[in-house]
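JOB MANIFEST
job_type = single_chain_structure
chain_count = 1
residues = 440
[input]
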Amino acid sequence: MNPVILYIDPGTGSMLFTIIIGAVSAGFFVFQKLKLKLKFLISGGKASADTNKIPYVIFSDSKRYWNVFKPVCDEFEKRGVDVEYWTMSEDDPALKAEYKHVSAKFIGEGNKAFSKLNIMNACVVLATTPGLDVLQWKRSKTTDYYVHILHQPGDTTFYRMFGLDHYDSVLISGEYEEKQLRDIEALRGIKARETCMTGITYLDTMKARYEASTKGEGREAASNEGAKTKTVLLAPTWGETAILSRFGEKIISALVSTGYNIIIRPHPQSFESEKELMESLQAKFPNSDRLEWNRDNDNFEVLKKSDIMITDFSGVMFDYALIFDRPFIYADIEFDKSAYDAAWLDEDMWTLRILPEIGIPLKEEDFDNIKEVIDKTVNDETLAKGRDKARAETWANPGEAAVRTVDYLIKKHDEIVEKNKAAAEEGKGEKELRIQTNEG
């Protein structure tokens, strides 16, 4: 007799996992509820705080966002306030950071991590991960408040649909971001999320780092500016519409023909999702005196040493323009917003509106004279005015984001503690009144 082979396709497997996690979570919460009732009875009906609840949790789904969270952790540490940092990256720099008040923990990857998040017992959670209560990551019934922090300047609608719908609040850095949130809320009839104009933590840190690294070198740099060979940074995002997917060999060949120094820095996800393409391009265009493939975890040095950048819809264009104050060229690719929250709104995304003011579009037909396009962009003085405008619109409170973020989190925590305490006292009073009524 042939043995029966049981096969479960990935989609069904994921659905089964969700059902199992749901059942486990339900059982956990029933157990927690019974335990709390038992404690209440043993204490003679006295209200007590949940001593097991974590005051603050910072959740990161990737080590890439350490630059967003590190300033916040530093501020918590400075104030002597305890916080837990949960990460899905086993090599997250936070795990090696030396803090007294920040406890970093690796919670596993994928479903293992989500199973822990879904039964988390916390007061305030800070995260940059979209999709809360949409896919595997569910709101925990024992967690009070979820706060979203943006990981780059730009639109709050530049997320897959419903990405921010189930957060309680969103930390923003521009007035247009709040308008987008309110417009989405009105269209979907969802509860208004609280907002706080904090700023952008990692931009503050990068700006301070850049200023420190260039201190005292201005005159020398200016005297050498005209003599050196230009360095061009190709820094695209990943996916079917990204530069390397659409124009890989063609654009790299065009850049090599300029005689300039070329640095190619693909998005980290390209080496996972587009591995075959990356291997093919690296084999055809290997490292040389004039060409470098860059995979540094920190992009600071390549941004600093390049004179101009070519990109598409990568958020790095804002780092380059706002911090390093340099021009960039962006591939003139039509952006398909059908899968994003932006599809719900008639108004163009802020990113698309500001792009022509801070960068120069590059069409495929321009590849043959790309050297001239690069030279023209480097010398275009109108782009500097556009960068000033972009800073004013999307970077609120420069230098203050970490302080304002922690101020907000502590304020929210204290409000929740007082609210829970009042609710517990009210419950105690109602119970005592029922007892007195029954005795009477």
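[summary]
The longest strand covers residues 54-60.
The chain has two domains: 50-200+398-417, 218-394.
exit_status = 0
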